Amino acid sequence: MEKTFPQCGKHAARGDWLPLLRATGADLAALYARADAVRREHCGNAVPIRAIVEFSNVCANDCLYCGIRASNPVPTRYRMPPDDVVSAARQIAAQGTAGTIVLQGGETPGDGDEIAALLRRIKAEVPGLAITLSVGNRPRDVYARWKDAGMDRYLLRFETSDAALFARLHPACTLAERLQCLRDLRDLGVQTGGGFMIGLPGETVETLADNVLLCREYDFDMIGIGPYVPNPDTPLGDQPNAYAGDPDMFFRAIAVLRLANPDAHIPATTAFDAVFPDGRDLALQRGANVFMPNATPGPLRKNYQLYPGKPCIDEDAADCSRCVQARLRALGRPVAQGPSHSLKRPSTGSIT
Ligand code: SAH
Q1: What domain range is 310 assigned to?
Q2: What whole-number distance in Å separates Cα of residue 74 and Cα of residue 341?
Q3: Can you list the alpha helix ranges (DSSP code H) found in 219-289?
Q4: Number of domains in the chain
Q5: What pLDDT sits at residue 3?
Q6: 106: Cβ below 6 Å to ligand 1?
Q7: pLDDT computed for residue 12 by the predictor
Q8: In a domain, 347, yes or no
Q9: Rounded distance, CA 190 to CA 207, Å?
Q10: Is residue 282 part of a domain?
Q11: 134: Cβ below 6 Å to ligand 1?
């Protein structure tokens, strides 16, 4: 009998996803095949490449799981000078594989004008390169200024849909505040990316289903999810991933996410490689459609270790660009040309 799945992209309840998040054997193979087919049908075979530049690890926040949290003395703190960020952007454009630069970093309140100036420079000096920014919760007027300066997209994971768990992990922020940021971004017409970590200590498979449902409710343009990896230099370091004994869960999550969000850009995130050999390649075959190679200058990478086992720490941007091309060739997936903006129609207003 043919396996049935909840109708793609339509609202489904927690109970509709739970059996898929528990699938094993032939059912699991069927889930992966279905997610891959939905990805192909809605996003095509070409893979948009977004090159990440981790432009600062200076952070005022103390998220309990994160390697660049303010209280961690291990990383040497850096802020890339604007000239270096612009030259990284030039290099990305010259390599010709990535149509987007993703600027990700720690959170330092008060840097709104500096970042706006940086966005303007990249837009002026490297025309045609789309810009995604990812620097945490900010007031709506700061997001608006960045949009005016050329920001195309913003990534802000909600990390978990469990408000109590969120509060335990983030000393300075609530889930409600983070969700407000995501609504502000969407209202401003910024292509908005949410997402979560898979397997935070204390979560259950029900939490995971709710995380997928929250992504569906917000109808994000992009959704980044990746396994939680305990970092021994953080207060959560001795608490294992909730699915440590069942790594298939990381891939069930990405497959179910694709079924629930057929038109979203879903990257095969770096953390998949940290927990599973060739994890990013497998993610691309089980629902993901985007690849995000690291384009941070080589010498800085060891100071942006959000978690241990992060790949490519000893490489540089040219290595990672070559590597992604080889990986995609091996999978028979061409590189998408151009910026690969959102596949959804422009936002029409607030989420109620
Ligand atoms: N300051 C920005 C960027 C943070 S790093 C922000 O908060 O949005 C980007 C993502 O890395 C985070 O959203 C989180 O989901 C992930 N991350 C951080 N520490 C991690 C860990 N120990 N394991 C797995 N992912 C982690």
Answers
A1: 8-331
A2: 37
A3: 248-260, 271-275, 279-284
A4: 1
A5: 62
A6: yes
A7: 82
A8: no
A9: 27
A10: yes
A11: yes
Pick from 310, 261, 264: nearest CA to 52: 310
| Structure tokens belonging to residue 299 | 């010498």
In a domain? residue 258: yes
CA of 106 to the centre of ligand 1 (A): 10
Kindly state the DSSP code that residue 76 receives in the 8-state scheme. Answer: P
**Is the CB of residue 307 below 6 angstroms from any atom belonging to ligand 1?**
yes
- Alpha-carbon distance of 74 to 53, in angstroms, equals 20
> How many angstroms separate the CA atoms of 86 and 59, rounded?
21
Please give the number of the atom of ligand 1 that sits closest to the Cα of 306: 19
- Ligand 1 atom closest to the Cα of residue 234 is 22
Classify residue 351: in a domain, yes or no: no
* Partner residues linked to 268 by β-bridges: 291
Other Cβ atoms closer than 10 A to 173: 18
pLDDT of res. 7: 76
Q: Is 231 in the pocket of ligand 1 (CB under 6 A)?
A: yes
**Of all atoms in ligand 1, which is nearest to the CA of residue 67?**
19
pLDDT < 70 stretches in the chain: 1-3, 10, 345-352
| CATH number, domain containing residue 294 | 3.20.20.70
Query: Tell me: the pLDDT tens digits for 22-70?
Result: 999 999 999 999 999 999 999 999 999 999 999 999 999 999 999 999 9
**What does the angle CA 343 – CA 344 – CA 347 come to, to the nearest 5 degrees?**
140
Per residue in 56-107, pLDDT (tens digit) is 999 999 999 999 999 999 999 999 999 999 999 999 999 999 999 999 999 9
Q: Which residue has the tokens 């040309």?
A: 337
Which residues, 6+ apart, have CB-to-CB distance to 158 below 8 Å? 166, 175, 178, 179, 182, 194, 195, 196, 214
The structure's pTM equals 0.96
| Any atom of ligand 1 within 6 Å of the Cβ of 228 | yes
